[in-house]
Amino acid sequence: MSGLLLGAAAAFLGLAGGLAVGSGFVAFLVVLDIIPRLTQLTKSRRFLHTYEGAVIAGALFFTWADFYDWRASMFPLGAAAVGLFAGCFVGMLAAALTEVINVLPVLARRVGMERYIAWLLLAMILGKVAGSLFEWLFYIGEG
């Protein structure tokens, strides 16, 4: 009986956690208007429904992949391509979020770097790339 109760508690906590994360993701996309803003910036408004469908399909696919513990065996160049696309997705999402809330102009004004905003952005990008490379090559490589 305690095994059944423990299983029910685990299922409840998993469902509650999934709903919380999913709700946060949907709120992030809808409230901040990320996808429509991204289509406006890239001048691809006609693909709005395609982008929304791709986000939904990706969420469903990777949810199932996680549930069934799918593994993808790839050669290193294939893994690099997947990493490149994942990085582009995260970068575009971060750029859309930054565009929506106007973080960089406010930051540049507050620290007195309005004339150097392009350099500030480049420094942020290179810092992220350098930090990621350090983690992948040295930190994870040791484990």
TrEMBL record:
The UniProt record lists the keyword rRNA-binding: no
Keyword Magnesium among record annotations: no
Transmembrane segments: 6-35, 47-65, 77-104, 116-139
InterPro entries assigned to the protein according to its UniProt record, in alphabetical order: SpoVAB
UniProtKB keywords: Membrane, Transmembrane, Transmembrane helix
Domain of life: Bacteria
Record's protein name: Stage V sporulation protein AB
Organism: Paenibacillus chartarius
Lineage, top ranks: Bacteria, Bacillati, Bacillota, Bacilli, Bacillales
